[in-house]
Amino acid sequence: MEKQMKITKNADGTLNVPDFPVIPFIEGDGTGPDIWRAAKIVMDSAADAAYNGKRKVSWLAIDAGEKSYEKTGEWLPEKTLDAIKEYVVAIKGPLTTPVGKGIRSLNVTIRQRLDLYACVRPVKYIEAVPSPMKQPEKIDMVVFRENTEDLYAGIEWAAGTDEANRVISFLKLEMGADIVAGSGIGVKPMSAQNSKRLVARAIAYAIAQGYPSVTLMHKGNIMKFTEGAFSKWGYEVAKEKFGDRVITEDELFAKYNGVQPQGKIVLKDRIADMLFQQVLLRPDEYHVIATPNLNGDYISDALAAQVGGLGMAPGANIGDDCAVFEATHGTAPKYANLDKVNPGSLMLSGAMMFDYMGWHPAAELIRSALAATIKAGIVTYDLARQIQGAREVKCSEFARAVAERMRK
Ligand code: NAP
């Protein structure tokens, strides 16, 4: 009888992963249960095929979202957050954002409460997925989006409220700012500490995965003391923590004649709007992108579209204490319980989770079997409507087809 155990974290941030780890999951709302069931089949089959029963996840259901609200009156019970902290690694389906219930978004709340400061979104083309790009195979990027501050911190006041008017009056009278009376106000806090830990994580990832560059994406030409500071702090932390592994683009040309030396990563910085052009025109020049919250929101969806859309984009929210892997799309409620939507995003998030746990063979099996299934023309409705001659299958049938390919 296998012994189920918790994943634990060492002081240096590395994980101790037992062979039979307990991993909490939130199946999610709307189409969440459909894609969760499908992703579970694929994750279990991958672990089984890779380790022949010697390693296996023991899944622990935890509550959040609509079902939790109906059961307990709470959208996000404290117990759920405690379980994620306790078990270190968790995975979730999409959650409905409660409208007018005093909660901005359950996802933002989970990220902020657990200090999951890095939203990590890999974007890589899978052969045969329809893409608007001419050469989508040139895209292999990983976005590290800061998750805890910037305009997403939720510090804002509605136009005409006493709070907004008081801030306007302070800014006018004490700081000399010119603001139209009755404006709504949002605050954009960005700190050295939080920017640096995000950029450090992005650089460490690039080194570990062998990516040749990290790009700081910012709008520092206009917002000098927030976005501009993000870029400055990024260069600082690169020097402080990775001085022997990172060179700047200036150094690349001044010291190395434009030829990247072996073992060194180039740190670039790009103004946000320009980077949107560059990832379309010269995508192979960009690899890991580190960026503040709002830019990261935009660029990760835009990049996902370049490789075929959100239905296939995986993601994770990672902090120093724990990590939550998730489908990046929403609950698509009109398709709930129809066994119809594409479970690819959650499956690929499961692969990311296995990589994070050091279960690389299982992760690779998920990616290769999923790619082989799509290449064979077996796809859910969203891809079937774009691929001529494809065989449309249900969400669960797609999962079985992927699992089947692992056993071959
Ligand atoms: P959505 O649920 O992502 O759905 C929008 C459209 O995207 C769907 O109608 C469908 O397009 C397509 N789509 C989404 N997931 C798909 C999948 N797995 N396979 C194939 N197609 C898929 O966005 P929404 O309608 O704006 O949001 C619904 C709810 O989800 C809201 O409550 C929102 O707050 C929440 N949400 C949660 C998360 C999260 O938990 N991470 C993220 C975003 C939104 P077609 O109709 O064209 O087929």
What brief labels describe this structure?
single chain, 408 residues, alpha/beta, 11-stranded mixed beta sheet, two-stranded antiparallel ribbon, 14 helices
Describe this structure in words.
There is one protein chain. The chain has 408 residues and is of the alpha/beta class. 43% of the residues lie in helices and 17% in strands. The chain contains 14 helices and 17 strands. The strands form four sheets. The protein has an eleven-stranded mixed beta sheet, sandwiched between helices. Strands 1-2 form a two-stranded antiparallel sheet. Helix 1 (32-51) crosses helix 11 (344-357), helix 1 (32-51) packs parallel to helix 14 and helix 9 (272-281) packs parallel to helix 10. It is globular, with a radius of gyration of 22 Å. Residues 31, 35, 94-97, 107, 311, 326, 329-333, 341-342, 382 line the site of NADP nicotinamide-adenine-dinucleotide phosphate.
Q: Major beta sheet, specifics?
A: 11 strands, mixed
Query: Which molecules are bound besides the chains?
Result: NADP nicotinamide-adenine-dinucleotide phosphate
Oligomer status: single chain
Hey, roughly how much beta strand do the residues contain?
15-25%
Percent helix, as a range, is 40-55%
The coarse silhouette is globular
The radius of gyration computed from the alpha-carbon positions, rounded to a whole number of angstroms, is 22 Å
Mean pLDDT: 94
* Annotation, overall tally of beta strands: 17
Query: In terms of per-residue confidence, which ranges show pLDDT below 50 for 5 or more consecutive residues?
Result: none
Main-sheet strand order equals 4-3-5-15-14-6-7-13-10-12-11
Question: What class, by secondary structure content?
Answer: alpha/beta
Count of runs of 4 or more consecutive helical residues: 14
